[in-house]
């Protein structure tokens, strides 16, 4: 069983500028946010609203919380649930695989109306809006690459982006693969979250990770990604950099 790992990697997000860095927690959600000002109360109200919408929907859709493959019932859906289903459909996985990214994406969009810089980290899934390229550090468990490398992303080309990670060896999230880190960069954090889950599921002990990653990124029209499996590393569509972590 995968054990919970303390989120010490959050220290990497708190360096280097005069922006406000704060956490907002509600039920299962634990968000680290960087923005121009501290908007904790604003974010908490949105977070509570989204949680209620998801829980209310789950009462009328018996498959919603546990489905591992895409399905859809003809039931009216709140916006956050619709976003989760759209992401799940692209990768043929269950909608809950996109829940953390959906929270980051929709809260990030609302916060972007108030702040020029918005970075939201939610369980390793990020929404990023910034005026300059940034480097996202990679935590990959026991891999020798963990904490030593990152990916440099230029979200200024897209307005904002999502960078999400799935792991078969780290953390409590369900994965059917063996990747220490499967990372997807997309124009939407919900799609990046679902994509990272789907990509991670495909990584097995005998998988050619370079071929898999390239095919996956092109097939789903994603910005880029990375796979870390022990001492092996595959990168496509993003720039890899060394970090000082």
List keywords for this structure.
disordered N terminus; T-fold; eight-stranded antiparallel beta sheet; three-stranded antiparallel beta sheet
CATH architecture: Roll
Silhouette: globular
Instruction: Give the termini separation.
Output: 27 Å
What structural category arises from helix and sheet content? alpha+beta
What's the CATH superfamily, by name?
ApbE-like domains
CATH class: Alpha Beta
Oligomeric state of the chains present here: single chain
Number of strands: 11
Portion of residues within helices:
25-40%
pLDDT average, as an integer?
88
What percent of residues are in strands? 15-25%
Count of alpha/pi helices:
5
CATH fold category name? T-fold
Structure in a nutshell:
This protein has five helices and eleven strands; from the N terminus they run E-E-H-H-H-E-E-E-E-E-E-H-H-E-E-E.
Structure description:
This protein is of the alpha+beta class and 245 residues long. 29% of the residues lie in helices and 24% in strands. The chain has one domain: ApbE-like domains (T-fold, Roll). The strands form 2 sheets. It has an 8-stranded antiparallel beta sheet. It has a 3-stranded antiparallel beta sheet with strand order 5-6-11, with no helix packed on it. A hairpin with a 2-residue loop joins strand 3 and strand 4. Helix 2 (79-91) packs across helix 3 (99-111) and helix 2 (79-91) packs parallel to helix 4 (189-202). The protein is globular. The two termini are 27 Å apart.
């Amino acid at each position: 069983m995968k054990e919970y790992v303390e989120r010490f990697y959050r220290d990497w997000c708190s360096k280097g500028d005069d922006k406000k860095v704060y956490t907002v927690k509600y039920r299962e959600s634990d968000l680290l946010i960087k923005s121009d000002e501290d908007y904790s109360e604003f974010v908490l109200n949105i977070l509570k609203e989204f949680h209620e919408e998801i829980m209310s929907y789950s009462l009328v859709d018996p498959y919603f919380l546990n489905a591992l493959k895409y399905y859809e019932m003809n039931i009216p859906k709140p916006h956050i649930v619709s976003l989760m289903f759209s992401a799940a459909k692209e990768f043929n996985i269950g909608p809950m695989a996109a829940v953390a990214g959906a929270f980051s994406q929709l809260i990030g969009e609302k916060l972007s109306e108030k702040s020029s810089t918005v970075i939201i980290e939610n369980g390793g899934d990020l929404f990023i809006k910034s005026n300059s390229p940034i480097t996202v550090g990679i935590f990959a468990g026991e891999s020798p690459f963990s904490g030593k490398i990152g990916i440099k992303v230029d979200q200024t080309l897209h307005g904002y982006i999502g960078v999400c990670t799935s792991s078969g060896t780290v953390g409590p999230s369900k994965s059917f693969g063996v990747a220490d880190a499967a990372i997807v960069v997309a124009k939407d954090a919900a799609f990046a979250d679902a994509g990272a889950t789907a990509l991670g599921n495909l990584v097995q002990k005998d998988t050619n990770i370079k071929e898999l990653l390239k095919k996956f990124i092109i097939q789903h029209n994603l910005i880029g990604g990375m796979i870390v499996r022990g001492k092996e590393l595959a990168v496509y569509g993003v720039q890899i950099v060394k970090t000082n972590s």
